[in-house]
Amino acid sequence: MSVHILDAMAREGFEQTIAIHHRASGLRAFLGVHDTVRGPAFGGIRRRGYRDEREMLLDCLRLSRAMTHKAALLDLPAGGGKIVLWDREGVDWKMAYRHIGEVVDSFGGRFYTGPDVNTGPNELGEVARATRFVTDPGEQGPSELAEATAEGVFQGIAVGLRAFFGATEWGQRTVVVQGLGAVGALVAGHLVAEGAEVIGADLDEDRAREVGARLGIRTVDAATALDVPCDVFSPNALGGLFHDLSLSRLRCQIIAGAANNQLARALVGDELFDLGILYVPDFVINSGALVRGTIFHLEGRREPVEAIGLRIGAAAAEILEAAEAEGDAPARVAVRMAERRIAAWREAARSTVRG
Ligand code: NAI
After folding, report:
1. CA-to-CA separations, 348 to 6, 11, 190, 270, 341, in angstroms, rounded
2. Is residue 138 part of a domain?
3. Which residue stretches of the chain are H helix?
4. 184 pocket-lining for ligand 1 (C-beta < 6 Å)
5. Which residues does 306 contact at the CB level (< 8 Å), separation at least 6?
């Protein structure tokens, strides 16, 4: 592995990264702590079939930094981290997750972990046998997290409409909701309740039919969702959706949805800006579950979803206003805003130590 990665980590101020090799289970993993200057790092466990160690480490660093940015933009008393596991043959996953719990526990509360791709309630159950620093989804389980996420996305759409058209005027709006899973179906339901016209799409045709009938919305073939003329396109399926080939198909004014990492490359955000399409950054409006988990674990209370949504809406509005004032793409403005806040907190922490 190239030494330059370590140089880059030092240059960008990553707090700590550890490589995990566990002989008994066959686990290989990285745990990244990007920053804890404002509070403990929060970061889920992602399990993926990485090409090599380099790809796995870079994913860990990118994701842990993104978590710090999220927390900073939402002004949460928390920082960012991530755990990435190499999904390979021959790993005893039960034992591996238990070991991850032991590693997390050794941080003594400086790192809280939770769900991410391929790590759900069963895996977290193993982690929780070894540590209490694992996010508790609440009595109803992951559906409570989806509710918080959907509320943030709904408010993100509302903020986007106000910024673009000056008002939400739901009765005059058409929203395409791509992905009618846990989050997408709730977003669609909320929009219908406000009086918007919603067009849904899901790769899983049974799911599309079921949600479509339940909400009384029209659904289209998932392959054509991007081509449908609408005011808002809300991606709630998979990331990486927007790239050179897909941009020319878009018939929307605003993009606002929960899917992680919607922009295949950072430059795509600039291209959307040049096309006059308002992109409400995914990493801000999909942070409902993080807000909920952080407040529960650090302040000991369950924040109502409405309050979570309003907090996310306010953060998104601040970013869109700054983007308008600076004449720059919202995704870039959001990252700069987060980095400025983190730098100020780090400076304040250094002065306290010096003082
Ligand atoms: P889910 O798995 O319940 O739903 C995703 C839905 O998208 C499924 O019904 C699937 O069939 C559909 N789908 C997949 N590819 C598609 C395509 N090309 N076109 C149309 N539909 C497609 O997932 P969930 O929990 O609703 O999450 C949705 C997105 O939001 C994911 O990207 C997730 O990473 C992100 N997210 C979810 C959070 C949560 O609290 N559940 C928190 C933050 C982000």
Report:
1. 26, 19, 41, 33, 11
2. no
3. 4-11, 53-73, 93-106, 121-128, 142-165, 182-194, 205-215, 244-247, 266-275, 282-285, 288-299, 305-326, 330-354
4. yes
5. 151
Residues 157 and 45: their CA atoms lie apart, in Å, by 28
Is the distance from the beta carbon of residue 182 to the nearest atom of ligand 1 less than 6 Å?
Answer: yes
- Which of 153, 183, 263 is the pocket-test mutation for ligand 1 (most atoms within 8 Å of CB)? 183
**138: pLDDT confidence band, cut at 50, 70 and 90?**
low
Residue at 228: amino acid letter: V
Domain count, the chain: 2
Where do runs of H (alpha helix) occur along 115-202? Answer: 121-128, 142-165, 182-194
And the tokens for 312?
């996310």
pLDDT at position 140 is: 67
Ligand 1 close to Cβ of residue 258 (< 6 A): yes
pLDDT band at 307 (very low <50, low <70, confident <90, very high): very high
* pLDDT, tens digit, 9 for 90 and up, residues 12-66: 789 999 999 999 999 999 999 999 999 999 999 999 999 999 999 999 999 999 9
354, pLDDT greater than 90: no
Q: Which 3 state secondary structure label does DSSP give 115?
A: coil
pLDDT (tens digit, 9 = 90+) per residue, 202-220? 999 999 999 999 999 999 9
Structural domain span for residue 181 = 145-291+295-338
Phi/psi class of residue 75: alpha, beta or left (left: φ > 0; alpha: ψ in -120 to 50)?
left
CA distance 130 to 269: 41
The closest of 123, 91, 94, 88 to 26, measured between CA atoms, is: 91
Query: Considering the domain boundaries, does residue 319 fall inside one?
Result: yes
pLDDT per residue as tens digits for the range 176-186: 999 999 999 99
| CB of residue 127 inside a 6 A radius of ligand 1 | no
Cα–Cα dist 236/122, whole Å? 24
Residues marked active site are found at: 82
Tell whether the model's pLDDT for residue 137 goes beyond 80: no
Q: Do 261 and 321 sit in the same domain of this protein?
A: yes
- Give the ligand 1 atom nearest the CA of 201: 20
Quick check: is 73 in a domain? no
